[in-house]
Amino acid sequence: KDDIPTIRPGYWWSWANRNFSDDEVRFVNFITQLMIKTDSYHRNSVTFSGRLPIVYRCPLPDSCQGGVTNEEMCIEGYAGPLCSLCDREYFSWFNTCQRCPPLWRGVLQLLLVVFLIILLMFALFKA
Questions:
Q1: How many C-beta atoms lie closer than 10 Å to residue 32's C-beta?
Q2: Judging by DSSP bridges, how do beta strands 85-86 and 78-79 pair with one another?
């Protein structure tokens, strides 16, 4: 029941690595037809005879959510081969991708540091 061939979490594959774009389209169509629970599916799309890409274990297993297409392989914040890179607006911190803080927070922190340095210099020169 509901057996859909997809990549498990912690694993990754890429159709683009080996120029499987036609196979990817046929595979996605095949999966779509398998998910139809009535007799309205296309009878010529219930088999897949194309090539599947090689499956790799992710070096950061929590970054790979599995799935079918390249777009859904990585969890939010991760990207690239094996979901080992941080996506835009994310940065790497101890092997995890963290969302970048808003610009105003960085500016505020910088102003606070400058203020503390000025305050420290004032206290040192006054003494």
A1: 14
A2: antiparallel
H helices present in the chain, as ranges:
21-34, 103-126
Strand partners, 97: 92
Q: pLDDT tens for residues 42-98?
A: 666 677 877 888 889 999 989 999 888 777 889 999 998 899 999 999 999 998 999
Distance CA 68, CA 88 (A): 22
Q: Where are the beta strands (DSSP E) in 1-127?
A: 11-12, 56-57, 78-79, 85-86, 90-93, 96-99
Q: Is 74 helix (H, G, I), strand (E, B) or coil?
A: strand
- Per-residue DSSP letter, 79: E
